[in-house]
Specification:
The protein has 296 residues and is of the alpha/beta class. It has 9 helices and 6 strands; from the N terminus they run H-H-E-H-H-E-E-E-E-E-H-H-H-H-H. It has a 4-stranded mixed sheet, with helices on one face. The protein has a two-stranded antiparallel ribbon with strand order 3-4.
Length: 296
């Protein structure tokens, strides 16, 4: 045993002396590269057009930690994300900045905007247009259909999939910061149907009861946000056609609800709803002149 210990001691000692020799000192060049990757052209554009002016991070690369795992989702195509980002900036962020100022946008809009390529589908078959999380993040789905099933120059389709969602979720954020007058909830009390909303037809059932869309029949806060978003994004022709379907009674209820929203936006946020709608509608025509092939 003594011999074994001696041999081991000798080997360890030799290795110790060898490890301390000058020739084996670290060169200072690590095999691990710590340099941060430089942003590509699109990422730089996002920094200059979203992050710096509005303090918003755009997530276009799908992150496992940021998605809702109850849905089967696929990443968004970066080229389609670039086009959608241009439109979102022009039609949404810049519209609010024009009316309420960039400080309002920076202080109140979500800190994170996430793009997902695929649809998000619930177990009952309903399609989720978008989601908002705690007032800090809005997620838009179905981005990979932009430019194909959803034409870039089809404003109604863009509204259906993206912009009614953005305005709707933003109204929720504003309501979280400054609650609306709950007397609004009494206007259609007794006609809300909770999770069964999708079983109702918008034109023949929701509108005549004073709901701008069947989803508004879910609950009062959804009614509030949905009416706000539809009023801003629908042009006069579309809005008037909906009022015709609503009939005299339904239109009167919708106008009563709109009066609440006008007062809320003016008193709490110093925003004239009619001015904001006019800006949104003007930009809805102008955005088609954007150069979607080049980042500027």
């Amino acid at each position: 045993m003594k011999k074994i210990y001696f041999i081991l001691f000798a080997v360890v000692a030799a290795l110790s002396f060898t490890a301390c020799s000058d020739g084996d000192q670290p060169s200072g060049n690590s095999i691990f590269v710590n340099d941060e990757a430089k942003p590509d052209a699109f990422e730089q554009w996002l920094l200059e057009n979203f992050t710096y002016p509005y303090n918003v991070e755009v997530l276009y690369r799908m992150k496992d930690t940021e998605i809702d795992h109850k849905y089967t989702l696929t990443p968004a195509d970066s080229a389609k994300c670039a086009k959608l980002a241009m439109i979102v900036k022009y039609l949404w962020y810049d519209a609010y900045a024009e009316v309420a100022g960039p400080d309002f946008v920076k202080a109140n809009t979500p800190r994170v905007l996430q793009f997902i390529g695929s649809l998000a589908i619930e177990n009952n078959g309903t399609v989720v247009m978008g989601t908002a999380e705690g007032g800090y993040k809005i997620t838009l789905y179905n981005v990979n259909n932009l430019g194909s099933a959803i034409k870039l120059d089809d404003y109604d389709a863009l509204n259906q999939w993206y912009f009614t969602t953005l305005h709707h979720e933003f109204q929720h954020i504003l309501n979280q910061k400054k609650p609306y007058d709950t007397s609004f909830d009494l206007i259609s009390e007794g006609n809300y149907v909770s999770g069964d909303w999708y079983q109702y037809n918008t034109d023949t059932q929701a509108l005549p009861l004073g709901f701008i869309r069947n989803y508004a029949m879910n609950e009062p806060r959804e009614d509030y946000a949905e009416l706000y978003s539809q009023y801003l994004t629908n042009n006069d022709a579309l809005w008037n056609s909906k009022m015709e379907k609503a009939g005299e009674k339904g239109e009167a209820i919708i106008e009563q609800k709109l009066a609440h929203i006008r007062t809320y936006m003016r008193q709490n946020w110093n925003i004239d709803l009619e001015e904001l709608r006019a800006v949104v509608q003007r930009r809805a025509v102008e955005y088609k002149k954007l150069d979607f092939e080049h980042l500027k």
